[in-house]
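Why do we care about 3D structure at all? Because function follows from shape, and shape follows, mostly, from sequence. That is the central idea of this module. The next example makes it concrete: a single protein chain, its amino acid sequence, and then its structure expressed as tokens.
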Amino acid sequence: MGAEFECNLKMYRVAQGFTQEQLAKLVGVRRETIMRLEKAQYNPSLKLAIDISRAVKAPIEDIFVFN
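And the structure:
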């Protein structure tokens, strides 16, 4: 598996008023990907992390916290 990390995506997604489905469409992935990210079961690519960061208007390092 990859590096262990915490994911604060749900907090930022909800703050922006997005459903998992809406965020998934915005960043070009399936809803399941957003669900797995929120449970910290999936390590995003750098491109996906940047796209999500821009969509929810939060710094990458605040969304994805690597231990």
